[in-house]
Design goal:
There is one protein chain. By secondary structure, this protein is of the alpha+beta class. It has three domains: about 270 residues, Beta Barrel (Porin), CATH 2.40.160.20; about 50 residues, no CATH class; about 100 residues, 2-Layer Sandwich (60s Ribosomal Protein L30, Chain: A). It is built from six helices and 18 strands. A hairpin with a 4-residue loop joins strand 11 and strand 12. Helix 4 packs across helix 5. The radius of gyration is 46 Å and the shape is rod-shaped. This is OOP family OmpA-OmpF porin.
Length: about 475
């Protein structure tokens, strides 16, 4: 894997991690899977294992041979992890490690190829001291076993990230990591220049970027502890990972590890790492207690509907429910007040017009409204017929109850008189035969201190 490929891999890893984080942030609260707040999402881990100087994808070693000639040697590798789980599919992990990577050239497995230095020393083995290696990884959970259970005991995952490593390679003249140290620049790193002139720095370790790519599996041991096993390939941009080598070589190594992961937070909450929302949904739907709760809720709704029906029952059809009707059995069409009792109108007055007709009760209106009630239509239809037949004139006087300001009530009373006039005009009465007036709160026919009185005062009187 060349440097360009490593950079592309790092960019791809960053994009995938960002997309996974965005997806998890947007999908925090599915209907049954109730979001991260009901789960434990933080964990820390300790791990240890071994390193080898090659990776599963193959490639050649730093001395130009195919893998197999330059032999693998096991080195130790150990570290810590801190992880935040954003959903059952994705989490971010901060990983830190240290240890050693070893490799050597074995005569039995192929030609004894060594690198010869100016001092006559020949490199036949190399040991890399990794002082520290830190990376930020996106962890993708790939699948679970027993997925129809609310929590799973086994969980597979893959991870990819980007990190920085501080290391120092030492090359030896023997293939067993003994003999003369033909290359060791500890305390002299800083200007990695080789060739015709010597470059001397003052650092014990050189820094290099690397991309970890790995897979693993976790086994749930308890509500707090899980066993974590994995394999990681590490690709670097460093052609000095094992010391001076081919200029086109970029170092790589892999590590196999095992460790324990400890979930943080209250034990009353489940571990999001081992939770499957599909299984949770299945369990919820199969849960007898949930069905009982639904049935109880349905019973409560049924009872509530019965209460509402009882409250809205109106046997005499006067618009006032039986529960609040103080005058049940009112004849159909009777104008009633808020208690369901008939409204008593003033006795009819003598008509001053030459043409005398029937008395017409005042037209009533709702509070703060100039909209005609449907029960007024029959009265106005009779009035319109009489006016048309006799070519008579009529005066409409509008009034309001005492709520609100006088100016507002004056305009409201005019609107009520004009609403009656417009109905008569639409029924064929010439507009010139109709006079509409508004008097606001004047001339109340009942007390404005009670609702019954105010209902009577919201009116239009018909005068012929």
């Amino acid at each position: 894997m060349n440097y360009s490929t490593i950079k592309k891999t790092a960019v791809a890893a960053s994009l995938v991690a960002a997309l996974g984080f965005a997806e998890s942030a947007q999908a925090q609260t599915p209907t049954v899977f109730g979001g991260r707040s009901q789960y434990r999402t933080w964990s820390i881990g300790v791990q240890g294992g071994i390193t080898t100087p090659n990776v599963l994808v193959g490639g050649s070693n730093a001395f130009g041979q195919k893998v197999g000639y330059f032999q693998n040697k096991v080195g130790e590798y150990y570290g810590l992890t801190i992880r935040k789980q954003f959903s059952h599919l994705f989490g971010l992990e901060l990983e830190g490690n240290r240890g050693r990577i070893k490799t050597y050239n074995h005569d039995v497995s192929g030609p004894a190829v060594e690198r010869t230095y100016a001092n006559g020393g020949q490199a036949r083995s190399a040991e890399v001291d990794v002082n520290w290696a830190a990376s930020l990884n996106g962890v993708f959970q790939l699948g679970t076993i027993d997925f129809l259970r609310r929590e799973n005991a086994v969980n597979f995952y893959a991870k990819v990230g980007l990190g920085v490593m501080a290391s120092n390679p030492v090359q030896f003249s023997n293939n067993d990591f003994t003999g003369t140290e033909v290359f060791n620049r500890k305390g002299q790193w800083g200007e990695e220049i080789f060739g015709d002139r010597e470059a001397v720095g003052d650092r014990d370790y050189k820094l290099g970027a690397f991309v970890p790519v790995g897979v693993g599996v976790k086994f749930k041991l308890s509500e707090v502890v899980a066993l974590n096993l994995g394999y990681t390939m590490n690709f670097t941009d460093d052609n000095l990972l094992y010391g001076p080598a081919r200029t086109d070589y970029k170092g790589k190594f892999s590590n196999v590890y095992g460790g324990l992961e400890f979930t943080l937070g209250s034990r009353d909450k489940e571990n999001l790492t081992f939770t499957n929302p599909v299984a949770t949904l299945y369990d919820e739907l199969k849960d007898p207690s949930l069905r009982n709760e639904v049935e109880a809720l349905k019973q409560r709704v049924s009872t509530l509907e019965g209460t509402v029906d009882q409250l809205s029952k109106d046997s005499d059809g006067d618009g006032v429910s039986d529960k609040f009707d103080k005058c049940p059995g009112t004849p159909a069409g009777t104008a009633v007040d808020g208690s369901g009792c008939p409204i008593k109108f003033p006795e009819p007055v003598a008509q001053n017009n030459a043409t005398t007709g029937a008395y017409y009760a005042p037209i009533q209106f709702e509070f703060d409204s100039s909209v005609l009630k449907t029960e007024s239509y029959s009265t106005l239809d009779r009035l319109a017929k009489e006016l048309r037949d006799n070519n008579a004139t009529v005066t409409l006087d509008g009034y309001a109850s005492a709520e609100g300001t006088e100016a507002y009530n004056l305009n409201l009373s005019k609107d009520r008189a004009n609403a009656v006039k417009q109905y008569l005009v639409n029924a064929g009465v010439p507009a010139s035969n109709i006079t509409a007036n508004g008097y606001g709160e004047a001339n109340p026919v009942a007390s404005n201190a009670t609702e019954e009185g105010r209902i009577q005062n919201r009116r239009v009187e018909i005068k012929k």
